[in-house]
Amino acid sequence: MAKRPRLKGAGLYHHIYNRGNDRHPIFKEYSDYERYLKYLFNYGRKYKIDIIAYALMQWHLHLFIFDHLGKVSKFINVLHDQYAQIFNKVYGRVGHVFEGRFKNKVVDANNYGIWLSRYIHRQPVEANLVSSPEDYEWTSYLVYIGKKRNILLKPDVILDQFGNNRASSYNKYKKFVEGDNVGPIDWREVELSSQPIIGDEKFVEEVHLKFGKESFEEIIIKDPLGLVSSRLNVSVDVLKHPNGNVLRGVRRHAIVILGKEFDFGVRKIARIFNVSPSLVTYILKK
After folding, report:
1. Residue 216 pLDDT greater than 70, yes or no
2. Same domain for 126 and 11
3. Phi, psi (5° rounding) for residue 117?
4. Same domain flag for 148 and 231
5. Are 43 and 141 members of one domain?
6. How far apart are CA 283 and CA 269, in angstroms?
7. Does 118 share its domain with 67?
8. What are all long-range contacts of 263-272, with beta carbons under 8 Å and residues at least 24 apart?
9. Residues 66 and 167 reside in one and the same domain
């Protein structure tokens, strides 16, 4: 049984978060953080994703992004696959770097965006790594308070809510983040909940009307082989034991459906079709 996350659509803001697999660190050295940020902004440009805010912690990460084209899944999968390949090569390890599929929530940036940015920028403080968020290097906070420049970061949607004068908005944002008001919701509870959209009733309704309510519900797939065999009009036996190039091509199509449309992991697909993970990886990267 697997779930198909469908939190995507052009013109949506997302809170994305993930942690290391088996409680292992995602970042070990200074160069790891730098490499991740390089890939983050490079693939952001490629897939038309605006990076609003970020926090890279040793064991987990948070991103606040705007998805222009509905490519959030492709963006994160490519970003994390690329990072994981180099991470494993550098440290002589194998296996997953990140814990399962990434998690994401669609967020109303106008009413909840500032609170999400505060939550993200306070991650190192809440982890007792620093006493002030500006003392931690691997978040976007220094850009938000005018102490660092990054032309690739897009903080205006947040800073504009603190006034049109940028110097003034830097100071107001700093007071906001370092103040005691935690906002209208508990972001930790939100992360653990099944609630896919963070916003008031009007915002949720608008998103449902634009994209369809079913697009933001998780679909339970109890029989993945049955699903793809029905779609491709072939038997399950053919998919598991294809004979000849034509039927092997059908199996490749089935693997692509489960991997790219339904976000199944490589190892899970390999078990379903009784093939090697390397073959699945090769097919999904073509």
Report:
1. no
2. yes
3. -60, -40
4. no
5. yes
6. 11
7. yes
8. 263/4, 263/5, 263/73, 263/101, 264/2, 264/224, 265/100, 265/101, 268/2, 272/224, 272/225
9. yes
**Rounded-to-integer distance, Cα 216 and Cα 5, Å:** 8
Q: What is the pTM of this model?
A: 0.76
> Which residue's structure tokens are 């088996």?
22
Q: Is 147 helix (H, G, I), strand (E, B) or coil?
A: coil
Rounded mean pLDDT of 14-39? 95
The CATH number assigned to the domain holding 83 equals 3.30.70.1290
DSSP string, 171-190: HHHHHHHHSS---SS-HHHH
The 10s digit of each residue's pLDDT in 160-211 is 999 999 999 999 999 999 999 988 888 888 888 878 899 998 998 888 888 7
| pLDDT at residue number 214 | 56
The Cα–Cα gap between 150 and 11 comes to 23
d(CA 161, CA 170): 11
Structure tokens at 2: 């697997």
- Rg of the chain in Å (alpha carbons): 21
Full domain range(s) for residue 262: 223-285
Q: 113 and 233, same structural domain?
A: no
Same-domain status, 134 and 255? no
Higher pLDDT, 260 or 43: 43
Residue 130 pLDDT = 97
**pLDDT at position 219, please?**
52
